[in-house]
Design goal:
Length: 485
């Protein structure tokens, strides 16, 4: 047996050297114990074979390493045959120790490769047809439900076809009538068109293909059922509620306008903040109403995406104002006009952002003053007055692309008149009624170091500094008196 001293097992970091040390100790011990027969022993016993590079000696030894020999075994050492057996046992333990971790690896749980399952992109540019989730006959109740839905749709479409003929007859009577009779017939025709619109929506609103198209961004805004579902999703899924909550909670109403009734779903996008610019793959940042932005994000004009639900082309006026600019003389706040663009044509078939917004009163980035509280930057998309009225009859009689609104010759507001801009007086002068609809949005900002660059590079004037005035202390006179006399 191989003679070793009793000691602790070597650590994992020194196992490479300990194994090599064992092979060297065997050679040394043989020379010391044999004494006079050292020359004959060295001639007959072959030298230990050095470990190859591809052997598993470089691998960490498992905890099942054999214990070192006892003192009694060390006394029996000295013969040549036993030395050969010692080297053979050492090589055997090395091979056993390398086979153990391989077995342990096989016993472990095999992890499945991580596969990213990405849903295919579906849109109007890359559409997909609706497929039934179940094969016919798999669930009889589902098949019967589809039959009922399709049967109801056919009956309603038949009624729509008959009602369209009645509407056409009434329209001819309206065109031939004059005076008060024409007004009466026009009111009757408006009610008939309302009923026709309801029937068209009901004939397709329950079809699975229609629901699939609207839910997967493939809505055709020319179809009444698609247009109705998109509008109801905006009104009932919480998006409109959030807008109205923020505008009233933060007193945008009545600070900017006395009343608003949104009819346009207005989305605003800006570039992402610096802390997300490199982490997020998105190039734009969708602004939630009332969210805080940095002045760095709004140095460039924000992008406006309107979603309109009327088929005729109407004109809108866009304004962006800040009602929280400090007014030192009057010890109050005033309004600053950042952006203005009139005569924007919009309809239900409009897609994408509003183009050419910086061609009238150019955009000046938000610049909240140092020392002032947060500023509420409000975007208004106000409807311009109609030529006759906004009704279903006007939508049906309007030509394609011909606006049903009056075109307003609003002059460009000079930079000197931006500060102190009166939104209510402007809306009253140009008959912009927020109660008739429109789109609205708002976000907030506070001062940071970027604002100094806006004052120096864009506004070309020194940056003001503000602070809250000190409160009058009613006990100031008593604080100067002695407490004890």
């Amino acid at each position: 047996m191989l003679a070793l001293r009793r000691g602790r097992l070597p650590s994992s970091s020194s196992r490479i050297f300990s194994v090599a040390g064992i092979s060297r100790r065997t050679n040394v011990t043989t020379t010391t114990t044999t004494g006079s027969s050292a020359s004959s022993a060295s001639a007959s016993v072959p030298p230990p074979v050095p470990p190859k590079k591809n052997e598993s000696l470089l691998k960490p030894k498992p905890a099942t390493l054999q214990k070192p020999a006892t003192k009694g075994a060390a006394k029996q050492e000295g013969s040549k045959g036993k030395e050969g057996q010692g080297t053979a046992s050492a090589s055997a333990t090395a091979t056993n120790s390398t086979a153990a971790p391989q077995k342990a690896k096989k016993r472990g749980r095999r992890r499945r490769p991580f596969i990213v399952r990405q849903r295919p992109r579906i849109s109007t540019s890359n559409p997909r047809a609706w497929n039934p989730p179940l094969q016919e006959g798999a669930v009889p109740a589902y098949d019967e439900a589809l039959k009922v839905i399709y049967k109801d749709s056919r009956l309603l479409k038949k009624e729509v076809k008959e009602w369209k003929q009645e509407v056409d007859k009434k329209a001819k009577e309206v065109n031939a009538a004059t005076g008060e009779e024409k007004e009466t017939l026009d009111a009757e025709l408006e009610k008939m068109r309302e009923r026709l619109n309801i029937l068209e929506v009901q004939s397709e609103i329950n079809l699975p293909s229609v629901r699939w198209a609207v839910a997967n961004a493939m809505a055709d805004m020319r179809v009444p059922s698609h247009r109705y579902l998109v509008e109801q999703r905006w009104r009932k899924d919480g998006k409109l509620d959030l807008l109205m909550e923020r505008t009233h909670q933060m007193s945008v109403v009545p600070d900017v306008l006395p009343v608003i009734h949104p009819s346009v779903d207005l989305d605003v996008t800006v570039k992402p903040p610096l802390n997300r610019a490199f982490l997020s793959p998105r190039r734009v940042f969708l602004v939630e109403p009332g969210k805080f932005l940095t002045p760095q994000q709004t140095i460039r004009p924000p992008t406006l995406f309107p979603h309109v639900f009327h088929t005729d082309t109407r004109l809108y006026t866009m304004l962006m104002v800040d009602p929280d600019v400090p007014d030192e003389q009057n010890r109050t706040f005033t309004t600053y006009l950042h952006w203005l663009k009139p005569n924007i044509p919009l309809s239900a078939t409009h897609r994408g952002p509003i183009p050419g917004l910086n061609t009238h009163t150019t955009y000046i980035p938000p610049h909240p003053q140092r020392g002032s509280p947060y500023h509420r930057y409000t975007i208004l998309l106000l409807p311009q007055p109609p030529k006759t009225s906004y009704s279903l009859n006007a939508e049906a009689n309007a030509g394609r692309g011909v606006p049903t609104s009056e075109k307003l010759d609003i002059p460009v507001v000079p930079n000197k008149e931006r500060l102190g801009f009166d939104v209510r007086e402007f809306a009253k002068k140009w008959r912009l009624n927020a109660a008739l609809g429109g789109g609205y949005h708002m976000f907030r900002e506070v001062w940071d170091d970027t604002v100094t660059g806006i004052y120096d590079g864009i506004l070309n004037r020194p940056e003001p500094h503000y602070a809250r005035p000190r409160k009058e202390d009613p006990y100031a006179a008593f604080k100067t008196l002695k407490k004890y006399v």
